[in-house]
Design goal:
This protein is 67% helix and 1% strand. The chain is mainly α and 424 residues long. The chain is built from 15 helices and three strands. The protein has a three-stranded antiparallel sheet, with no helix packed on it.
């Protein structure tokens, strides 16, 4: 019986590996094996079923994000079926949400699984980052070039001073930067899984390669987000455990206020003509679309709708802001759901970091950088990034009880194991 149980427990971790490998390299085909079940969806479904078998309690999957997720899901269903839009983007959203609950279940049912998640993240970062450096060092054309940090040029006519913008395993540099900003802090979590000093040096070296690869993208938002993530990583590691409850709440409020201030400032500027160029046009169009269609234009349709609303024939893939993109696609309810998710996720990460959870510390750094980048871009528009984003959310939300009135930490192993590893 023990071997059978061990095999069943391995299934969720294997499913997590499939998700992270596919997010990093697009390893698995997107074509369905049967019906709408792609290889990744089949793996996630198998992982959820195996977790439910080994930990058949609703509390295993309950999180504080459930109300926000319910609001996002209801808004997505409403805009899809009331608007008569294709349901493929809704299926992609359901897959990403399933990934979230898969990791929450894995972390709750198998507390030591954070070690496996960290090692998988390390491998994923290494794959994407080394691919990016290979493009730069071997001068592999990517179709993206710059003559500096602020000037895009055509690679064929950029001249000898042009620099290749690495794309790694993604379609464009900004997506690679978002991937690395989100996952590199999680990869550094592997440093507390090993006791030997040189092994930790190896882990940190891969992390440095990951952050270095962000520089090869020449993504302005990516570089700022990576720097912010590193700053939060250091600050949370040293400062958060020393904060009391009110100090942590103050830090959370200040951080959220800063994010709100940036969002409001961007919205104000977007209403003042073309002060922010094409992004300002996209943001203004997203707001106007929400006014005209309160239920949204449909999941995955913001790019086409914004392109049609902005004069000049420029093509947009999304609204260049995660929250405004949800506003355009799923209406006011979608925006409220994403705002609620942001607030709860950051507050939870701060609490976990204050309680000396190493997973909480790296999760806070990852989410801070990603949310900052999402104010001027929408990398989660790509399914691979979206699933990774929800996976990181699952890692963070598993660190605290599912209900606000509960105390204690259901997944305390990262904090204890991290301290043990540092003492050795």
């Amino acid at each position: 019986m023990a071997p059978v149980r061990a095999t069943v427990q391995a299934v969720p971790l294997m499913a997590t590996a499939v998700v992270m490998l596919d997010s990093a390299t697009d390893f698995f085909p997107d074509a369905p094996l049967v019906g709408v079940l792609t290889p990744v969806r089949l793996a996630v479904l198998a992982g959820l079923v195996a977790t439910a078998v080994t930990a058949p309690r609703l509390a295993t999957f309950r999180t504080r994000l459930d109300p926000a997720i319910a609001l996002l899901l209801l808004s997505a269903i409403a805009t899809t079926y009331v608007g008569g839009h294709p349901d493929a983007p809704l299926r992609a959203l359901l897959t990403a949400l399933a990934t979230f609950y898969l990791l929450v279940g894995v972390r709750r049912a198998q507390p030591e699984s954070w070690r496996a998640v960290a090692l998988l993240a390390l491998a994923a970062v290494a794959a994407a980052a080394t691919s990016a450096f290979a493009q730069v060092t071997n001068e592999v054309p990517t179709g993206f070039c710059r003559t500096g940090l602020f000037t895009d040029v055509d690679c064929d006519s950029g001249g000898p001073g042009s620099m290749i913008r690495a794309t790694g395993t993604f379609a464009n540099p900004n997506l690679l930067a978002a991937f690395l900003v989100l996952l590199t802090p999680i990869a550094l979590l592997a440093a507390v899984t090993v006791a030997e000093r040189t092994a930790r040096v190896a882990v940190v070296s891969v992390g440095l390669v990951g952050y270095g690869a962000v520089l090869t993208t020449f993504s302005r938002a990516g570089c700022v987000a990576a720097a912010a993530g590193l700053l939060v990583l250091g600050g949370a590691y040293w400062l958060a455990p020393r904060l009391g409850r009110w100090g942590a709440r103050t830090l959370t409020v200040v951080g959220l206020a800063g994010l709100v201030a940036v969002t409001v400032a961007l919205w104000v500027v977007s209403r003042a003509g073309d002060a922010l160029g094409v992004r300002g046009q996209a943001w203004k169009a997203a707001v106007d679309l929400a006014v005209d269609q309160p239920l949204g234009v449909g999941l995955g349709r913001a790019g086409d709708a914004v392109s049609a609303a902005v004069p000049g024939g420029r093509t947009f893939v999304h609204a260049h802001n995660m929250w405004l993109n949800w506003l355009a696609e799923a209406g006011v309810a979608g925006l409220l759901g994403m705002v609620l998710l942001t607030v709860i996720a950051l507050a939870t990460a701060v609490r976990a970091a204050r309680e000396k959870s190493v997973a909480g510390v790296v999760g806070l750094a990852a989410l801070t950088g990603f949310f900052l980048a999402a104010t001027v871009d929408h990398p989660a528009n790509l399914d691979r990034i979206a699933m990774l984003f929800w996976l990181v959310l699952g890692l963070v939300m598993a660190e605290v009880p599912g209900r606000w009135r509960d105390s204690g930490t259901p997944a305390e192993a990262p904090a204890r194991s991290g301290r043990r590893a540092r003492r050795r």
